[in-house]
Amino acid sequence: MAQVDIVSLRDNADPARRLRLPTRDDSGKHVDDLQCIDRSMLADPGLIDDLTTWRNQSMPFFLTQFSGTEDRTRRWLETISLPAADRIQFVICDPGGNRFGNFGVCNIRPGSAEFDNVIRGRASGIGNLMFHCGMTMLEWMFSGLGINRPRCTSSLTMKRRSAIQAAGLCGGRKPAAAARRGRGMVEHSVVDRPEANAGFDYLRTEHPVERFRQAYPAALPAG
């Protein structure tokens, strides 16, 4: 399968042509879509507010922390996310158009990429929603982006481990330290254990395509 052009996907201005990745539950029922945040979506009512609210609600789990505003979110989309050649963002929408969270991919390189900005923003009646969205995203990363070993790097506490992390191979746990960068921003980085001050560790997991095909043989052709 030819690899997709993520720049053209993000530059799309026609809602009818927006990339939608269908997600199915354990029974195979279509329950929602991962919809690409493209230029046609910027005018959708409530989108910027949702993204800002969800980010603020989940801020303690991000490696870069700040107080989000709608203006800041819009600037991030228009000047960083949409123009970038190495990232793409999606929102989770049910067939009625209700939004439940967002999912992204960043650091896209030949053969590699990372999950990014994964947030469940509001509750839904769909069991294991984020797990099923993660499986859909993995399928697309393998077949659409040609990624063989997607990665997930995030903060980790003893009480929180994402469904995406749980589905992968643990690639290591590293301590973190916090540094203030002005304008209320705190950035975390990997350090030696004696220098750690953040109260949590990084956890990196990998998701080899071979492991995925063995666990979900019906999801992706072997060839």
Question: From the structure provided, what is the oligomeric state, counting identical versus distinct chains?
Answer: single chain
| Secondary-structure element string | HEEHEHEEEHEHEEEH
CATH structural fold name: Aminopeptidase
Task: Walk across the major sheet and give the strand order.
Answer: 1-2-4-5-6
Low-confidence segments, given as residue ranges, are 157-161
Walk me through the structure.
With 223 residues, the protein is an alpha+beta fold. It has one domain (6-215): 3-Layer(aba) Sandwich (Aminopeptidase). 25% of the residues lie in helices and 32% in strands. It is built from six helices and ten strands. The strands form two sheets. It has a five-stranded antiparallel beta sheet with strand order 1-2-4-5-6, sandwiched between helices. Helix 2 (47-57) crosses helix 3 (70-81). The radius of gyration is 17 Å and the shape is globular.
Question: Keyphrases for this structure?
Answer:
223 residues; alpha+beta; Aminopeptidase; five-stranded antiparallel beta sheet; 10 strands; 32% strand; globular; transferase
Could you give a quick summary of the protein structure above?
This is GNAT family N-acetyltransferase. This protein has 223 residues and is α+β, with helices and mostly antiparallel strands.
Fold topology:
Blueprint: H1 6-11, E1 20-24, E2 30-36, H2 47-57, E3 64-65, H3 70-81, E4 88-93, E5 99-109, E6 112-120, H4 129-143, E7 151-156, H5 163-166, E8 169-182, E9 185-190, E10 201-206, H6 209-215
Antiparallel strand pairs: 1-2, 2-4, 3-9, 4-5, 5-6, 7-10, 8-9, 8-10
Helix pairs in contact: 2-3
Keywords: Transferase
Organism: Rhizobium leguminosarum
GO molecular function: transferase activity
